[in-house]
Amino acid sequence: MRISKEITLKSKLAKIVAPALSAIAIAVAGTGPASASDAEAMAYTCKDNEVCFYQHSNYTGSVFVPDELKYHSVVSDFGVKKFVNGANADNAVSSVINTTGWRFCFYDRPFMQHYQGTLGADDGANFVGQQWAYLNDRISSVQPCS
Ligand SMILES: [Ca+2]
Predict the structure, then answer these.
(1) What single DSSP character describes residue 18?
(2) Sequence ranges of the domains in the chain
(3) What average pLDDT does this structure show over 6-14?
(4) How far is the CA of 8 from the centre of ligand 1 (A)?
(5) Ligand 1 center–CA 113 separation, angstroms
(6) Quick one: CA dihedral 102, 108, 111, 112, positive or negative?
(7) Using CA atoms, how far apart are residues 84 and 68, in angstroms rounded to an integer?
(8) pLDDT digits over 45-55, tens only?
(9) Cα(70) to centroid of ligand 1, in Å?
(10) Nearest to 122 by CA among 141, 89, 99, 96
(11) How many angstroms does the Cα of residue 143 sit away from the middle of ligand 1?
(12) Model confidence band, residue 6 (pLDDT cutoffs 50, 70, 90)
C-alpha cells in the first residue's frame, strides 16, 4: 500500500515538474549566467509530508515550507511569514505542492477569511492555468480541510 502511494505521487509530480524543467533549460540556454540564480532558486524539491509554497509559477523561485502544515495545523497569516530568500510570503505564492495526506483550503485574507479553493492530498497547483489563475499572488492563510 505504501509503495503504491509513492508511485502515484511520483507520477503526478513528474507531470507537474517536467514542463518547468524544460522552461528552465530554455531560459538558461537563452540568457546565460543571469539565469544561473533562477536555476538554483528552483532547485528545492518538495519532500514527503511537506506543503511547499513557491514564489513563482511552475514551482520555481524561492520556497516557503510551513512546519505547521506538516502537523495538520494552520498558517493563519502569511503576512508574518517569509520565503527562504527573505521575501514576505503574503500575496506572493504562485504555485504550491502538497505531499501530505491532507487537503488544504486557501484563503485570500488572514485568519481563514475569504475562502478561495482546496488543494487535494498529494497534489500540486500552478497558479498560471485557467483553473487556478485567480489564486496567483493572493494566498494569505491556509488550513487543513476535512
Ligand atoms: Ca490575500
Answers:
(1) H
(2) 2-145
(3) 48
(4) 32
(5) 9
(6) negative
(7) 16
(8) 999 999 999 99
(9) 22
(10) 99
(11) 14
(12) very low
